Amino acid sequence: MATKLVDLVYWRKMSKTGVVFTGLVISLASLFQLSAITVLSHICLGVMSVTFILRLCYKLLELLRWNPGVHPFQSYLDHDSSLTDKETVMLVEEVVLLIAFAFTEIKRLIFIESMIDSIKFVVLLYLLSYVGVLTSGLTLVITAVIVVFSLPLFYKKQQMRIRRIVRAVKAFVKRIKNMCLGLYASMKPAPAHAHAPTPASASASKQKAKSK
After folding, report:
1. How far is CA 145 from the centre of its chain?
2. What pLDDT, on a 0 to 100 scale, did the predictor assign at position 100?
3. Beta carbons within 8 Å of 149's beta carbon, 6+ residues apart
4. Cα separation, 130 vs 202, whole angstroms
C-alpha cells in the first residue's frame, strides 16, 4: 500500500495519478455545495454507469460469439483484498497505539507537564483559531491534496535549482550565525586577571627558599 501511494504521489504512472488526483479534487470541491452522502452516491453511480455499459457490451459480444466469455473486470474480481488474521491484529494494534499516543500527548500538553511544550501548543491553537476564521477545514484538505501531489513533481523537475537554493540558504544562515557568535564574543566581558603577588608575599617566599 505504501509503495502504491508513493507511485501515485511521484506520478510514476501518469494516467493513474491523473485520474486519482482529478477525482479527489473534484470530489472534495463538490462537498462545498453537496453533502458527503450525495457526493459518494454520485461517484458510485458514475463508476457503475461505466462498468455496467462495459459489462453489457461484453455480454452482447458473447451472445454474438465474438467474445469467449471473458469478464471485463475479472482481474479486479480475482484480486484478493482480504486481510489475514495476523494482518488484522497488526492493523488493530497500530490504530490502538496511535490513538493511545495521541491521547497521552494531549493529556501531557493540557495538564502542563512541560511548560515549553504547553506554550507551543497554546500558540498553535491560537494560530489555528485565526485559520479557522479565515478558511474552512475542507479548503485546507483540498490545499493539502494539491500540495501532496504537486510538490514531489515540482521537486523532480527543479531538483538541481532547489538544491542550489537550499545550499545558498544554509550558507547564509551559517554566515549570520557566525556573525552573531562573533558579536557575542566581542561584547562578552574579559575574565579578571590574577592579582600580581605583593612585595611582602614575594619576600616571604624568598626567605622560605633560603631557609630550605
Report:
1. 11
2. 93
3. 8, 9, 11, 17, 21
4. 73
Q: CA-CA distance, 47 to 33, in Å (whole number)?
A: 21
DSSP letter string over 80-138? --PPPHHHHHHHHHHHHHHHHHHHHHHHHHHTTSSHHHHHHHHHHHHHHHHHHHHS-HH
Instruction: Name the CA dihedral angle for 132, 5, 38, 35, rounded to a multiple of 10 degrees.
Output: -10
Q: Which parts of the chain sit beneath pLDDT 70? A: 1-2, 188-212
Question: Exposure of 198 by Cβ count < 10 A (0-12 exposed, 13-18 middle, 19+ buried)?
Answer: exposed
149: how many CB neighbours lie within 10 A of its CB? Answer: 19
Instruction: Please tell me the distance from the alpha carbon of residue 142 to that of residue 26, in angstroms, as a whole number.
Output: 9
The pTM for the full model equals 0.57
Collapsing DSSP to helix, strand or coil, 70 comes out as coil
